[in-house]
């Protein structure tokens, strides 16, 4: 089994691209193929969106701090592969409640939720953590006949 991924990113625009690159490499190590399946591509998108939200919103009223990314594999009886990926994207900033009418922006949480099997936003005095969970459906991980 692949080791958990743990990285700390600076709060800057390039960190979204870094999160995508690191997630892809980690998922390829886990799943084995040369190209990610749709499920894993969706997870990479959701993680990138969570990192971008931290960069854009978390540190508006506090000094800029880090964005952390932690990914791990866990057993999942609901997945054909028997495995799920759980990702935590955290910051040390302040939560900003999304506006009722986001206008041309503000659909990140909705898009993340649609891209994974489960999402939870944990708001604390010390920051915000978005937890994303998705069952692995990679053809390379699903036993034949499942």
TrEMBL record:
Classification via Pfam families: HATPase_c_2
Domain of life: Bacteria
Residue ranges occupied by any Histidine kinase/HSP90-like ATPase domain in the UniProt entry: 14-133
Keywords in alphabetical order: Kinase, Serine/threonine-protein kinase, Transferase
InterPro entries recorded: Anti-sigma-factor_SerPK, HATPase_C_sf, HATPase_dom
GO molecular function, one term: protein serine/threonine kinase activity
Protein name per its UniProtKB record: Anti-sigma regulatory factor (Ser/Thr protein kinase)
């Amino acid at each position: 089994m692949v080791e958990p991924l743990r990285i700390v990113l600076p709060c800057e625009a390039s960190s979204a691209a870094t999160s995508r690159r690191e997630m892809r490499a980690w998922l390829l190590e886990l799943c084995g193929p040369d190209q990610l399946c749709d499920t894993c591509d969706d997870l990479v998108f959701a993680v990138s969106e969570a990192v971008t939200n931290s960069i854009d919103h978390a540190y508006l009223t506090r000094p800029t701090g880090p964005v952390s990314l932690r990914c791990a594999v866990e057993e999942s009886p609901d997945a054909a592969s028997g495995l799920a990926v759980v990702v935590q994207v955290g910051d040390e900033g302040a939560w900003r409640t999304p506006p009722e009418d986001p206008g041309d922006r503000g659909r990140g949480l909705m898009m993340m939720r649609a891209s994974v099997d489960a999402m939870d936003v944990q708001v604390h005095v010390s920051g915000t953590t978005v937890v994303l969970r998705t069952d692995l459906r990679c053809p390379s991980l699903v036993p034949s006949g499942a």
